[in-house]
């Protein structure tokens, strides 16, 4: 199942997405905060790759985690963790990330109905990502954790 807004949709990764995702590029200042899709695509239990598509073309990607890893970020047993959000560099500036995050609540409700919260960690230096998440309804929990490249803020979004 997919959720759609203005020709932008979210769907679970399929093999037909692989070739386009392999061509994704990110500028260095963004690559230090996230991973390219093929770097994190390996199948692990509890890891769900999600593709952001405009029309029929993949333009972005993220992971949703339902594994034990979630416990590093939340005490809520019904929380799902979002990581590795990226929009292909040549597709940036078109509002795709914002629209994708606006679809997130409905997508989680439909695809993962047992979860009532999305959580994520955003680097304290990644101001554009913080602003994006806040615009679409995430809130800073006040919790912090140390990441690979510094302090991370833990954000949450209720799924209602």
TrEMBL record:
Entry GO MF terms: acyltransferase activity, transferring groups other than amino-acyl groups
Ranges for domain N-acetyltransferase: 8-160
InterPro entries in UniProt: Acyl_CoA_acyltransferase, GNAT_dom
Pfam families: Acetyltransf_1
Organism annotation: Paenibacillus azoreducens
Name of the featured protein: N-acetyltransferase
Taxonomic superkingdom: Bacteria
């Amino acid at each position: 199942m997919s959720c759609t807004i203005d020709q932008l949709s979210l769907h679970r990764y399929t093999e037909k997405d692989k070739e386009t995702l392999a061509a994704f590029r990110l500028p260095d200042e963004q690559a230090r905060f996230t991973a390219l899709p093929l770097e994190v695509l390996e199948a692990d239990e509890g890891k769900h790759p999600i593709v952001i598509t405009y029309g029929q073309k993949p333009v972005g990607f993220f992971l949703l985690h339902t594994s034990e890893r979630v416990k590093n970020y939340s005490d809520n047993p019904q929380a799902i963790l979002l990581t590795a959000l990226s929009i292909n560099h040549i597709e940036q500036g078109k509002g795709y990330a914002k629209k994708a995050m606006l679809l997130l609540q409905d997508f989680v409700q439909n695809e993962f109905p047992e979860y009532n919260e999305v959580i994520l960690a955003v680097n304290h230096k990644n101001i554009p990502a913080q602003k994006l998440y806040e615009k679409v309804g995430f809130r800073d929990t006040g919790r912090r954790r140390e990441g690979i490249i510094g302090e991370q803020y833990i954000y949450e979004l209720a799924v209602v």
